[in-house]
Fold each of these.
Amino acid sequence: MVALTVTPPQDQLASANGRKNGRKPENPARAQGLKRAGVRLGVFVAFLVAWWAVTAAGLVKPLFLPSPGAVWNAFIQSNSCRPSPLVRTASCVVSRTTSCGSI
């Protein structure tokens, strides 16, 4: 007696294993998450470019819409450990009045 073995084509084997071309199947949730992250990053970059363009063109006074660089510098200055000139002046005035008052 002759035994016949039937093997299915490769594409049927791949679909039975859940793989295409020997690769793992793609996770649709991960792909959608990457797409959303890309869209968010693109919108943020477009916002910064538009903000920079409007301030560089001088369409709005810096009092009402400062440039992104000015906002960044103010953020760094307000969050740094060194005191601003106004704080230094105020502390000098306070120290002078207290030292003079104790004499």
Amino acid sequence: MAESFNSMESKGNLHTDNYSRICPECQTGVMQFQRITYFTWLDEELITVPDFPARVCDVCGRREYDRHAIQRLNSLLNPEAGKRREVRHSGASRRNPASPQ
């Protein structure tokens, strides 16, 4: 993987915002940046991603995931990722330079 989820904290929203906010779920806890293990299903296979950026409520445990990290993960898990795409040219043929007459 060319870019790890660790390197995303310099680009992402969660860690670099440097703010805390009240949890929207319990209205008591504070959402704090953490690196967690993210779990998701890909067809019938459980995928785990360690060290994933998230904000976690210190009271109820609600998790909010960094949208850039989720987008990156989705692109990596996309079944079409890494496959060559066939380049289609339009019906117009290339013109050859005019030959001297």
Amino acid sequence: QAGVGKIAAGGILLLVALLVVANALVDALAGLLGTVDPSHGKTGWAAVIVSGVFGAIGALLVRSGTADLAPGNLKPDRTALQMRRDKRLAEDQVR
């Protein structure tokens, strides 16, 4: 269950990073075209840095969540022996 949450959180952060990069590209293009004043154009690099950090964290979360969902990590918490004991206990309770 934790792996799925990590993958979801990582995916959300990657989406945010993509949106910030898109915003940075728009700002950079607007700066090249001269449609914004120069002081506003500086936000593009800040957006690239922020999106890089968010993207790295998101990628790490997705990778960690994927590792948590590896077949070796999906072992049942209860052993077959414990399940047999539970079955006997339930049968005893019914009698």
Amino acid sequence: MLRSIRRAGLAAALALAAPAAAVSFADLATLSLAAPVVIRATVVKAERIAARDTPGVPAGTVRLLVTAATAAAIAAPGEVAPRLAYLVDVPLDARGRPPKLV
């Protein structure tokens, strides 16, 4: 389960960190095929976690606690919760702000 969360975080980080042209369909397909759980969800809330609570996060990035509403479970070994929460590290923009996810 932890591996799938890490992969999901990696996929989210790839999608946010790189321009759309830099993340290929093949990259996302490879991550999706390797994951035991694939979910389509809509971000409901993204909260920035204070720097003092996130040791080890590289400079120029911020850790967010993202809450998402499940729209569909594409692949899952069992039931999926209607709301999901996960951590993701995203790069800050030129003004020092995280990307707008909601």
